[in-house]
## 1
Amino acid sequence: MTVKLNVEGLTKIFGRNPRAMLEKLEQGLTKDTILKEFGHTVGINQVSLEVNEGEIFVIMGLSGSGKSTLIRCLNLLNRPTAGKIMVDGEDIVKYDGKRLKAYRQHKVAMVFQHFGLFTHRKVIDNVAYGLEVRGISPAERRELAQKVIDIVGLNGWEEMYPNELSGGMQQRVGLARALATDPEILLMDEPFSALDPLIRREMQQELLDIQARLKKTIIFISHDINEAFKLGDRVAIMKDGVVEQMGTPDEILAKPKNDYIKKFVQDIDRSKILQAKNIMIRPNALVSLKDGLKVAIKEMEQAGISSIFVLDHERRLQGLVTIDDAIKALKEHKPIKDILQHTYSTTAPETYMNELIQIATETKYPIAVIDNDQKLLGIIARVTVLSNLV
Amino acid sequence: MNYFPENLRINIGKYIDQAIEWLMQNFGGIFDGISAGIIWFLRQIEILMFFVPWWAVLILIFLITWRVINAKAALAYSLMFFLVGCFGLWESMILTLSIVLSSVIFSMVIGIPLGILMAASDRFNSYTRPILDAMQTMPSFVYLIPALLLFGMGKVPAVFATMIYAIPPVMRLTDLGIRNVPKEMIEAAHSFGSSNLQTLIKIQLPQALPTIMAGINQTIMMALSMVVIASMIGARGLGLDVLQAIQHIDIGKGFEAGICIVFLAIIIDRLTQSIGARFKYPK
């Protein structure tokens, strides 16, 4: 995994003389003191983080935590007071006007909370804006814009004005406009906060689908921890301009660093964030088709279970054998093939836990997690899913 | 009764007199040049306006109004123009329109760029505002006399005086229109690497256009309200007819010319407003 973007000791202070305030920060004065005594606002303070290529990195925090200030530094809409922002090994803070323009035109694009659409331009001209600024010919930019419009599902809306569209559709325009320049880095500043919950969920899913195809490096701002954990490959939680904890959702869930994070994590509806692959376990007993019934019974006995999954030589799931059937078949000298059951349930590794609840209530056996080739990845005990209901 | 002490009196009037005299002596050539330029421009406008026959003007007004408002208004407005002709004031009206049109064009050419500058710079804005207030409230006779001295009698000081009155609204509303463009929209433009000029031309000006159009409408109205004063310093037109009627205590003639000015004001106001409304985008 290569590091795409590396932020080191980034500080942004708003006010008349931000540089002078840097010293005060170093002397250990707090954000509140600096605001009250000196009238300067500390947006972010000594933030360092690394974003890997192709991942969704979510910066999450409540309002006033500095998350928007931070993301606006990444394309220099905010000029940092101190610190480095290394993109592909170059410090963009040092860029002159020309190189900054090139950076914004080619490498980075932004999606805004309130869409920031140009209301005097049609959807297609909004989407093509970045290309227009770059000086691409009208015919070519129309073609490129049309491609992106197809990707985000805006077909047939090209000739409308943004204000004639619903909120969800407007943000699709915002997303398309950002994707049109084919940027390597996508900055998304609370893009779905202004949408109602149903549309928000739909857009989140759509973003994941698009990301699976385009593999951009996405930096996503959110104040909603459920959204953060659902979308983020890694998440940074911010408070008062400082990163409190950073890690994968699993890591943060497992080891919240302090009480503040703990309080956040409590709010989480785990069933909406955890996927089958996060909760599945390696089965401690399995049999292969070529093994005999005796092996199967022995395995069950050792593991203390009364049913066992049967695989072929490529780990493809073939069926399930219960202890009763196995003993009966042993007496009748039947091969294992003849007593395979198929009444168990399977699921894909990406299924969210809340969708598994229904399955878990209906089946008697553990749920088998399989990939597209029918290979068994793991199993989920019913108790793992159902205990979450309590 | 208390009086302000006599010995604290300052005579700045004297210095203003001297400044005007100094301007006349040292820069007379420049003012003559400006004067000649304005006259030349006015001539072109007049030639253009008189080139169109009266019935063509009626048809033109009818068609334009029909397109931007409706048939009823189109009929009413062309009837108004027809009446102006019947009052025997057609020529005066064309002369007035030429002065108004020239003043408005000059005001826009000067006012819109200055308005953009006001929006771009808070400092320039804070210096300009009191000047604009002064331009709109200073009684026009006060600057008419120096204008007369610098430009001589006739249409030029009239255009000059009209511009002083008519530039502020277009400047103010250009400034307002650009400042009211949502911040996120500007940020979006910058985030795609637009230069300031690209942002101005592609985003700020189109967004501000409805407001700027309102400013132009105001400018035209202001210019029209100056026609009588303009005629006092030798500009011909409807203002002169009013003035002559006053001098001869000819109430009827005064009303005829006055009504024509009102007709012009109504027609121009409604037409520019309706045209301005076409620049609005779905909200």
## 2
Amino acid sequence: MTERRIRVLIGKPGLDGHDRGAKTVASVLRDHGMEVVYTGLHQTPAMIAEAAAQEDVDVVGLSLLSGAHMALFPRVRDELTARGKGDVLLVGGGIIPHDDMDSLEGDGFAKLFGPGTPTTDIATWIQEEMEKRFEREGEEA
Amino acid sequence: MSGAAETTTDPRALWEEALNSAKLRDVDFTTLSGEELKALYTSEDASFDEERDLGMPGQFPFTRGVHPTMYRGRLWTMRQFAGFGSAAQTNERFKFLLAHGQTGLSVAFDFPTLMGRDSDDELSLGEVGQVGVAISSLADMETLFDGIPLGEVSTSMTINGPAPILLAFYIAAAENQGVAPEAIRGTVQNDILKEYQAQHAWLVAPEPALRMITDMMSYCADRAPQWNTISISGYHIREAGSTAAQELAFTLANGMEYVRRGVAAGMDVDSFAPRLSFFFDSHLDFFEEICKFRAARRIWARKLRDEFGAKDPKSWMVRFHTQTAGVSLTAQQPENNIVRTAYEALAAVLGGTQSLHTNSMDETLSLPTEKAVKIALRTQQILAEETEVANVIDPLAGSYFVEAQTNRLEAEAEAYFQEIEERGGVVPCIESGFIQSEIHRSAVKYQRAVERGDKRVVGVNCYTEEGDGPPEIDLHRIDPAVEREQHRRLGELRSTRDEKGAGEALEAIRAACRDGSNLQARFVAAAHAYCTLGEIAQVLREEFDQYKEPKIL
Amino acid sequence: MSAAQGVLDRLVTGDRTALARAITWAESADPRFRAVLTGANERVGRGWRVGITGPPGAGKSTLTNELISAHRAAERSVGVLAVDPSSPFTGGALLGDRIRMDGRTSDEGVFIRSMASRGSHGGIARATVDAVDAMDAFGLEELLIETVGVGQAEYDVVGAADTVLVVLCPGAGDGVQALKSGILEVADVLCVNKADLSGAERLAADLEEAVSLRDVEPHGGWVTPVVSCSAGTSEGIEDVLAALSLHRTWLEDGRLEAHREARRLAQVHRALAEAVDRELWEAFGWRERAVRLLADGAAHYDVVADLIEELRVQTRTAAGGGASER
């Protein structure tokens, strides 16, 4: 019998300093029973991916409000894959136009959350996704 | 007990009985900041001495405004923050705004510029020109103001960590236009303390950053006396999630810290305090915001005169710019944002602001489109020209509610000043994360209140519509070509400038870092030598301590 | 078991994701962890383990960061295990220690892992020792364990570390308060951080006096040194390193095995006490018994005496069979 807890990394790639959303989501995920690693501001894609690898997280959530998501989000995905972490549940949020959300969701991101998404919806969505994953792992083991 | 109540004729008791026995709406009767509100305010709630606590407009303690004439003399400055893409694109937008009646310029920079990185720095990838204009050198600054006479416009630049360097570019650009520093007018935000607390665009650790600021204050007192050296900003603190009282308290505490530093550096308080200005948020709680502006003026006047011994009345005045609350805008039903912004603008004007930026309805989705920007500007013009609110000075003074809330906010701010002092001052409170965690706590509390439905947001948790998803408005996108063009321009600059002169200018900065001589003059010289922002910032990063955010979660 | 073998193979050949996965298994009490550790057993015990504890705000993270820098400058690899508290209500946790160490993330000689305490109260998590064992087996040389740091003395770190560094600073973690909470018993090195603040000298003097007056000698002849530093500006870090190194030399002078054994024993003792307490109180029904006895008007010491006597009788019965029938 194992005691799995959902481990999440919340990362802020790029130079944008707006961390209100990232920190609020981190607090809410904690309140939903998850263990949340927050790596702070001004991270490169490689730093986020390396932290995710060392922490062996199940979920990586990226927050970005500067408009650089189309340049930086796919890089984080590539850096994760390069470290054998291509299988994490990868999600993102911030000021992201719908077209970009669609394009990222078709390109390695499980889900993008736009402005105004209730934080509890984010938490619930992650919980449900991870339950499915844990179940699948259980069947495989 | 009930017998007495039945027979009373006391109007107050009768009213209380009527209120207590009535069925009221099932909502929290609190301010946006979560403060309990009474149903009715009377003279008992609002103790104030008209002479001592309000004064006359243009007179101590300036509760009623900093000018004797207020908007009868001159309307507030309509100053729309703008900047995106390349310097040439922003230059066009500036000319568009000036042609439509805007009276001052306000520059938004992209994140690389805000963090002191050149457009071709590895860390700038994807960020160039995204949220503001990319300025990596004097050459970019010259393009930005091409055809705009710097001796005639007033310019506000929202820049902090590298503010001394950007001001140097501006001074150099003016000089190249034949305009002396003595003639330039405007403001750099340059409020580094709130960067550590809320906005997070810093260059180096607090102590060396504060030294650069006092160097700039001293340079400008000598050379550019019409330049406002710091715009002490509550805006970002509020946007990061603080309450109104926290915005007020932390902003003024930061302001007092700058004054202390200036005095400690040997300057006479009256030589620089008149060049300090302020920048506040105007949020949706109409009355709380108006009272916040009034309290800010009164607190600052008392502190500067009574604690810092300033003698020049200009040192006592809170002159401030206001921006409507970006965080109050919603992605859902974005046209509603026009209405929110209008109420917030009205509060700023009734609170006596000197200048105002009104947000565009599409700013939660991307940079504003030209149409949205025009509506935002028109919102101010309607307020100024059609509503007649600009005719009477401080029209809400004496309202029991307004005076009671003004007093309440002043008291809350004083309590924070005391706590900050007990914790060793503003810098230790930044290093320990005290201020950041106070803001974070308020942000989480508000978010929970919205998600529980205790605080209503139209289009988000009430009056929602089917298909509130993708908005129907056009979006403004930055062409990735801007980044490539900036790389090209920087390459060209480095290959055509006098390398030796640039290198010497950088070494002069390094020497000043070590020997304590004034850095601002060195920055201006380096600007003229076409040293880039990133090169100058790199010297500072090498010479000074770095800042790491505390763990505050 | 093949998954475990795969992780073991990769762990011993320096694959960081294997180390990361092994720690996850340790944390989730996954049986595969035992298989990995058994396989790597010979490699454990080479790294040096320093526990870093102290009250909140004393600057543990900053000091840890400085120690990492110093070890890296000496070209020694570093493993960091940073423990943060789990919420007793939701079980969730915010793990923010990496924020202050972010310059180290891209350094291949450093491996940092954040860990939630998951209900343990001794300053580290149940899986902390396992995780450090895994780092040790991986080959990291300097192992730093940063405890939760919520205020009270965090004794469990003693069982996890070769050297315990207690960090205090003037103001935040008051020295006298720290002494009362038994910090001297766990400290191999006492460090006064933020030495530039007023009160730092006084705190250092108080600590030295307390060390010299100590009549019980819990450390087998080791005299706990008191050092001062300002982790923010790196001042005094070399003194901290020297004190740590002195303790290491002292232990390695024939005392290490006994030291580790005694500490592991102490750890078992405390864990056992906690487990026995939980077992008796809840599963064994002492809680209800105590409620009844108190309701009957017994004084609290009578309740304790009563229950302990009952335990003795029962233990004798279980152990000796007929021996107690006299």
